[in-house]
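Project outcomes to date are best conveyed with an example. Our students and postdoctoral researchers have been running inverse folding experiments weekly, and each run begins with a structure described purely in C-alpha cells. The record below, which covers 204 residues, was selected by the lab manager from last quarter's runs and is presented without edits.
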C-alpha cells in the first residue's frame, strides 16, 4: 500500500524546548505514530538533518556568537532543501528543532537582535516556517537531571538557559502555531498531550 499523503495544512511539525525537555523522545513517538497511521513521514533534526558536518563543528567547540549563529543558519539552509522536497511530495515533516531554536537560544539567550534573527531565519528557509510547534516546558532542575553529557551549547550555564526558557514562553505568547506542553510529566503522558493537540488540529 502506498503511504497516505498529507493534504491538510499541517505538513511541517516542529518540536521545541530547552535541552532535555523531551524533543527527540516525543518526535520519535510522533514519527512512529504517523507511520502507523499510514502517512509518509520525513524526520529531520537541527543541527544535522542532512549530515553531521556542521553539527559536529557546533557541538564540539565554543564559537563567537556570530560564528555560531551563521553555522546554525548554514546548516538550516542545507536542511530546508530536503524539508521542501518532502513537503512537495505531500509527506509530513517532523523537525527536532527549527528556526525557533535560533530565536530562543541566539536571540533571547544570547542577546542577538530578534528582528534581525527573524529575517536571517526566513532568509535561510526561503520563508518557510513550521505549521505547528510543540513546545515542551521544563524547569532547569529537570534539565540538569536529564542531560548528563555537556556539549558546547549545553555548557552555557544557568542564567543562559533561564533566558532561553523565558524566550520560549515569549514565543508561545507571540506565535499562533505554538502549543504548550508540560514536559515534566511522564513520557507517555507528554505524548498523550501531543496527540490530543494534533487530533484537535485535524478536527478528529
Ligand atoms: N517525560 C520524561 N520524563 C522523564 N525522562 C524523560 C522524559 N522525556 C525524555 N526523558 C529522558 O530525558 C533525556 C533527554 O530526553 P530527550 O533526548 O528526548 O530530550 P531533548 O529535548 O531531545 O534533549 P536535547 O536538547 O539535549 O537533544 C533522555 O534520557 C530521555 O529518555
Ligand atoms: Mg534531542
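After processing, the design step wrote out the following sequence:
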Amino acid at each position: 500500500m502506498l503511504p497516505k499523503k498529507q493534504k491538510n495544512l499541517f505538513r511541517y511539525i516542529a518540536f521545541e524546548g530547552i535541552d532535555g525537555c523531551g524533543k527527540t523522545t516525543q518526535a520519535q513517538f510522533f514519527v512512529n505514530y504517523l507511520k502507523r497511521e499510514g502517512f509518509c513521514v520525513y524526520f529531520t533534526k537541527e543541527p544535522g538533518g542532512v549530515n553531521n558536518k556542521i553539527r559536529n563543528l557546533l557541538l564540539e567547540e565554543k564559537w563567537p556568537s556570530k560564528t555560531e549563529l551563521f553555522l546554525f543558519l548554514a546548516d538550516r539552509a542545507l536542511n530546508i532543501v530536503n524539508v521542501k522536497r518532502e513537503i512537495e511530495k505531500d509527506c509530513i515533516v517532523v523537525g527536532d528543532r527549527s528556526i525557533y531554536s535560533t530565536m530562543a537560544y541566539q536571540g533571547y539567550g544570547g542577546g542577538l537582535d530578534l528582528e534581525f534573527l527573524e529575517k536571517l531565519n526566513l532568509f535561510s528557509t526561503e520563508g518557510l516556517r513550521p505549521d505547528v510547534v510543540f513546545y515542551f516546558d521544563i524547569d532547569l532542575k529537570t534539565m540538569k537531571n536529564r542531560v548528563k553529557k555537556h556539549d558546547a551549547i549545553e555548557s552555557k550555564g544557568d542564567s543562559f538557559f533561564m533566558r532561553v526558557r523565558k524566550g520560549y514562553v515569549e514565543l508561545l505568547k507571540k506565535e499562533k502555531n505554538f502549543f504548550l506542553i508540560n514536559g515534566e510529566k511522564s513520557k507517555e503522558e507528554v505524548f498523550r498531550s501531543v496527540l490530543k493537540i494534533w487530533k484537535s488540529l485535524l478536527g478528529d
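The longest strand covers residues 132-137. Strands lie at 12-16, 41-45, 92-96, 132-137, 178-182. The training component of this project remains on track.
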